[in-house]
Structure formats: C-alpha cells, structure tokens
Backbone:
C-alpha cells in the first residue's frame, strides 16, 4: 500500500566555497532558496556544511535556511552536533518538514583518513515510519566499504522501517560496487546514479538518494541552475520518495 511522498534534496556545499574560489555562505543560502525550495521540500541534507577541521565551526545561516525552506534544523541538541561551534555533525546538517513526527535521532562516527559521519532521524509521516540517514563517505573505495558495513550493522540494530540514504557517497561508478551490496548492508537499496560532480561539467554520480523499497523513488534529478553551479563544486540531487505502508 502506498503512503505519503517525501520530496528530498541533498547537496555537498563544499564549505560555501564556490567555483570562483570565493567562500560565500550567503550564496549557498540564496541558491537553496531559489533552486531547491520552490515547490516544497520535506528533507534537505547538506554535506561539508561546517568547517573541515576542528572545531568544525559553523559556516551557514541555518536559521535563514529554515526560514527560506520552511524546514526544521535537526541539531538543536548538543549531542547531535560535533561541538558547541558546529551546526551539524562533521559537516552533515539535516533539515526536515515540521509535519514529520520525529522520534529518534542519532549520529554515527565513521572511520577514515578524514573525519566522516552520518546523521540518523526516525520519524512518522501520516502514521508511516521512515528512517532518514544523511552521510558523507570517504574518497577511498576500501574505506567506503567499511563505512557502509558500519551503516549496515547499525541498521540491523534498529527497528525495521523504510530507510532513505542520501548524501555524498563519493562513489563514481554508476553500479556502486561492493559498498551497495545487499549482503554488506543487510538489505538492497535502489536509486539512479545522476552525474553531479564537478558542478561546471558534471561527469561523476557522487551524490545520490537511495531507498530500500523497490519502485519507491521517482523524479530524481540533478539541479544545475546558474546560482547552484557557482556556489559549490557539487550539484544538488533531488527526488521523490514514496513511503510504503505495511500490509
């Protein structure tokens, strides 16, 4: 049985450093407002949205992004941020539609040469449970496999519900390789690979939206308007995820 639809978007904002080399957080906010917010969003996941090095200080105007999109910033509790000067966890920031009944929130440390992490929210939408996991994975293929193995182990410990993965997976091969193997994750995730990097001439499908329900993902596109192309070296991906009611 089909249920509600979630309009999801994910964008690696490259710490607000645009293709002209300028760091301009206002340009990122304006691009979200002009290119992603119109038509409505339910989920907005940002990566590289805090400073790269400790203390991973804030960059963006999260209250302004919330005002522009109507979405709620999910990191008001200290344990959902890297530290007091951060807006997210290791650069990953998640915003959700206020109509979503949020129950459980968590963060996951992922191993790597550079700090990596994931943000987890479990919620209900019109009574249908859904888990949303935003992440930024390693540039190294072996490390990505290890990181996704940790994600799979985490999922095995949590209640069963439809799960959405979105973020910068740094996987350039459309088929995804071992990191998306169902045995590794404990379930099979579905979603197309759209070219999102580099923003000036997209060649690689590094940024994705996936869900573990076949046929539930539609209208997946890369948003490539002028303001978005100038604001980061990645382009955002956007798509609709249909939540499936159980039996």
Residues:
């Amino acid at each position: 049985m089909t249920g509600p639809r979630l309009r999801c978007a994910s964008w690696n904002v490259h710490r607000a450093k645009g293709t002209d080399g300028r760091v301009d957080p206002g340009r990122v906010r304006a691009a979200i407002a002009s290119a992603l917010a119109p038509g409505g969003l339910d989920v907005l996941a940002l990566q590289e949205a805090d400073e790269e090095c400790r203390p991973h200080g804030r960059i963006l105007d999260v209250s302004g992004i919330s005002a522009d999109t109507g979405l709620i910033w999910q990191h008001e509790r200290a344990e959902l941020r890297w530290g007091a000067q951060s807006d997210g966890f290791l650069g990953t920031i998640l915003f959700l539609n206020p109509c979503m009944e949020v129950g459980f929130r968590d963060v996951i440390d992922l191993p790597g040469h550079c700090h990596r992490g994931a943000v987890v929210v479990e919620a209900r939408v019109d009574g249908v449970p859904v888990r949303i996991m935003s992440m930024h994975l390693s540039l190294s293929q072996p490390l990505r496999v290890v990181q996704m193995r940790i994600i799979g182990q985490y999922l095995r410990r949590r209640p069963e519900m439809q799960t959405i993965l979105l973020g910068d997976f740094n996987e350039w091969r459309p088929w995804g390789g071992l990191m998306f193997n169902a045995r590794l994750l404990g379930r099979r995730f579905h979603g197309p690979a759209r070219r999102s990097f580099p923003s000036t001439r997209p060649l690689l499908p590094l940024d994705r939206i996936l869900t573990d329900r076949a046929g539930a993902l539609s209208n997946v596109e890369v948003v490539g308007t002028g303001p978005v192309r100038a604001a980061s070296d990645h382009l955002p991906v956007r798509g609709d995820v249909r939540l499936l009611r159980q039996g």
About this structure: The CA atoms of residues 198 and 244 lie 34 Å apart. The longest strand covers residues 2-12. The helical segments are 25-36, 62-69, 141-157, 182-185, 226-231. The mean pLDDT is 94.
